[in-house]
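#lab-general

N.A. 3:47 PM
ok so I finally got the sequence cleaned up, no stray characters, all 194 residues accounted for. can someone with queue access submit it? mine expired

B.Y. 3:52 PM
send it over

N.A. 3:53 PM
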Amino acid sequence: RLFVVTGPSGAGKGTQARRLVERRRDLAVAVSATTRPRRPGEEDGRDYHFLSEAEFQHRVDTGDFLEHVDYVSGHRYGTLRAEVERIFGSGRSCVLELETQGAKEVQATASDAVTVFVRPPSFAELERRLRERATESAGEIGERLALARHQAGEAGDFDHVVTNDDVERAVGEIEAIVDRALSRRSAAGKLRAT
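B.Y. 4:20 PM
back already:
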């Protein structure tokens, strides 16, 4: 099954996705592709698939992406179909960590995807997290905050909304959503088999 964890930057969707997968052997997080430069300590294929702009565009043109977006920084991000297929081929369900635009693209093409919007407990907390992370310039943080205000209004477009006020409580809530989705699919499969 395909699970999408979405929300604004700084809401904690990446932390939630990683913690969820740490708890469950039946899930794996898809490694996204990006055109942004590699940061210190990042590894190609582990943190991201780092692609040149030309390679990224070629893969867009050939339909290799399940979803892709151009972000406020000018960098591009996307999920390669081959990455999702690799995870499904290993017998696990796939977790995508996406911005809302990418999550909506997945919703449009994978109707059985389960989407979870992770929101921060407050906008002030979101701003604090982004500034503490300090991987972007002040201008980029301002752009991310403006985008986050817009994205907060999109929460109702997704199947579930989880407030990330406590990491362990929130990941437990997401895990319960995963359990329900997988048990419904299992039950539906058993009904079709009879």
